[in-house]
């Protein structure tokens, strides 16, 4: 039994004990959360020594923002810091080149990354299509989808001994000859360790808008295999997403317009949840500021936010220096660009504390104000670090070089889903609205009932708390149709399915505007949503300049559970 000094929910304690706190050989937990936070802070602060700074001074600063749950780094940092071969990054992308040797080298690298708690994205578009020639054997190729299945199976096996459930992103370009098989795959097969996304180009979108044909190209020789109507493929994407939640769409030309290091390579893929576009062999360490902790006297305490963003940015930069990379190529690439991704969680909580409904104009304005502030302060920190520690090694020729801005990191901001760290911090996840106000969640053998703590507080203060109210809430999960609740409260606690798709997209766009990398957001739709609506959402997302989009229609089948806690 561990003795808790800090206050955690029972759900957080379970998650911590199952996956995060150190255990002895018998599997008994041997540290408290405070000791874990010290372990993380002390380990990462060791990097300060490399720059002739005082590690213990910085360890204290890191500990303060982490133990107050105002900032948490991504899960691998919490799990692995201080252990032998500590691997601290959550996000990776590996190349998949068109030879058996290269494919299986990547599979091996992916296994090592997965074992260390990271998730990997793969773009399979360089693989020759199904039915194409294999010169060495005189046989025929089995195509990208078949290899993706091998990667999925391998993840199944490795995750059983690893730190957490497998998470991969499988990607194919819209002009690959096997695109239709890829787009439809989740309708017929589980592939439970993969989210899948189609890489969509501007050329494809133009063809779609003109109701034109576009070419499918064999990556082996660059030959046009055939032409398809863009609308035909787009409709298939819509159909599969409507039915299964997969594929998402990645707007690759938009991503590459913001690629800070085009001289090092083109971006082809993102990490598993889509928030982190990366070059082949690149990694990124994420961390999130818990915005629910910054509301003081009815407004946001920007002074404290600035203080914390600066320390958190430095923490993430330090983390790169003390990470043990399971794959040497990744170490070289990550240390070359030094990408970090500071983002936010607890956004829905923050809005409720401020009394602003998630879909109110003021919420969209505040999203921009807050994220702009975070981005500016983290860029300022990266610039200060560049002056002391030097710019990132690939700086020359980068977009930062062209702008004349010294930076220690090619990017500093990303908005992650925060699936598990938000449970530890007991806040709403990422920038998502509440999905339900009362729900049950099973973690291993224990079932937890979660009732929104702010709602209970409001109910008690405003006099609509009663056993009957709680029972009705338990049944419905939202405030819709509960008569005892004032209209104002109903508006403040609107849940994901009561918010229009356009408003979901708007919120994503507000945050994206001031985020270097991308934004994890699910456009949640009610079950009754029509396919045309999904089509409209994809087109609007493209026109709004988003880097990608994930849609999930309530009740549609899905094999992946990435967005839910990965602790069960
Ligand atoms: P957390 O809250 O655990 O820090 P997030 O839900 O914010 O993680 O996810 C951030 C990134 O971490 C994902 O996009 C993915 O790259 C990686 N990741 C998440 N879950 C897993 C998992 N089960 N296995 C491997 N990597 C994961």
- Estimate nothing, just give the exact number of structural domains: 3
What's the CATH class of the largest domain, please?
Alpha Beta
Query: What is the general shape?
Result: globular
Helix content: 40-55%
Distance between the termini: 20 Å
Give me the CATH fold name of the largest domain: Anaerobic Ribonucleotide-triphosphate Reductase Large Chain
Mean pLDDT: 95
Hey, roughly how much beta strand do the residues contain? 15-25%
Features:
single chain; 3 domains; 568 residues; two-stranded antiparallel sheet; Anaerobic Ribonucleotide-triphosphate Reductase Large Chain; 10-stranded mixed sheet; 43% helix; 20 strands; alpha/beta; globular; 21 helices; binds adenosine-5'-diphosphate
Description of the structure:
There is one protein chain. With 568 residues, the protein is α/β, with parallel strands linked by helices. It folds into three domains: 10-88 and 273-421, Anaerobic Ribonucleotide-triphosphate Reductase Large Chain (Alpha-Beta Barrel); 91-270, Anaerobic Ribonucleotide-triphosphate Reductase Large Chain (Alpha-Beta Barrel), CATH 3.20.70; 436-494, no CATH class. Helix content is 43%, strand content 15%. It is built from 21 helices and 20 strands. Strands 1, 2, 3, 6, 7, 10, 13, 16, 19 and 20 form a ten-stranded mixed beta sheet that branches. Helix 7 runs parallel beside helix 9 (230-244), helix 11 packs across helix 14 and helix 14 (361-389) packs parallel to helix 20 (501-512). The longest helix is centred in the middle third of the chain and has 29 residues, at 361-389. It is globular, with a radius of gyration of 23 Å. Residues 559-568 have low confidence and may be disordered. The site of adenosine-5'-diphosphate has 22 residues, from loops.
